[in-house]
Amino acid sequence: MKASILVVEDDPGIAMALEDDLRAEGYAVETTADGGMASARAIAGRFDVILLDVMLPTRDGFAVCREVRAAGVRTPIILLTARTAEPDKIFGLETGADDYITKPYSPGELRARINALLRRTSEALPETFRFGDVEVDFGRREVRRAGAAVAVTPLEFRLLEAFIRHRGRALGRQRLIDLAWGHDTFVTDRVVDNQVTNLRKKIEPRPAAPVYLHSIRGYGYRFDPS
């Protein structure tokens, strides 16, 4: 079965080039040039990947991304933009995007990013994952503890998802950056450590003495749910 891609791009030339290239690679492609329409299609449709331009009519890509995630849609999103500033990249990832690629980009790089996301999402996850008194609902992108909702940011959810996907395995900080922040994003080790600390506060019985998220000195972390 072909992977289905929604291309959201208001430049007709770029949109056509993307559609032609992706169709040549065997993908099923749908395009739209409007932010409002993109949000509606992403929520109503069943796409495998969304390529989302940031500068769009009626609603920018950041707003579309937030709206899609708020609706519980987990489809991987790659932001496409000419903005190269690090704060823009971080903001895009914080709104719920999975990856970020700046223009101009090569078709080969974009295809590699798409394939990487498809491989990652093809690793089956249960609709919900439970450990201790914590329940992670991937369909709703929610975390509950003892039945009560826990407020987690999109980044914290991606980080927790990465740990669950790779449970029992040691993950270095750079690997966590690739999985949760995205490739080509500059994030310091301290930022990773701070995010893990925040996550521990929300899932650990005693954050100062973690039983699930274990530190590996000089390397990174390992998630042991049992």
Describe this structure in words.
Helix content is 42%, strand content 22%. Helix 2 (35-44) packs parallel to helix 3, helix 6 crosses helix 7 (173-181) and helix 6 packs across helix 8 (189-203). It is of the alpha/beta class. Strand 6 and strand 7 (134-137) form a beta hairpin. The longest helix has 16 residues, at 107-122. It has 2 domains: 4-122, 3-Layer(aba) Sandwich (Rossmann fold), CATH 3.40.50; 128-223, Winged helix-like DNA-binding domain superfamily/Winged helix DNA-binding domain (Arc Repressor Mutant, subunit A), CATH 1.10.10.10. Strands 2-1-3-4-5 form a 5-stranded parallel β-sheet, sandwiched between helices. A 4-stranded antiparallel β-sheet has the order 6-7-8-9, with no helix packed on it. It has a 3-stranded antiparallel β-sheet with strand order 10-12-11. The model has no long low-confidence stretch (mean pLDDT 87).
Outline the secondary-structure elements.
Elements: E1 4-8, H1 12-24, E2 28-32, H2 35-44, E3 49-53, H3 61-70, E4 77-81, H4 86-94, E5 99-102, H5 107-122, E6 128-131, E7 134-137, E8 142-145, E9 148-150, H6 154-165, E10 170-172, H7 173-181, H8 189-203, E11 213-216, E12 220-223
Parallel strand pairs: 1-2, 1-3, 3-4, 4-5
Antiparallel strand pairs: 6-7, 7-8, 8-9, 10-12, 11-12
Helix pairs in contact: 2-3, 6-7, 6-8
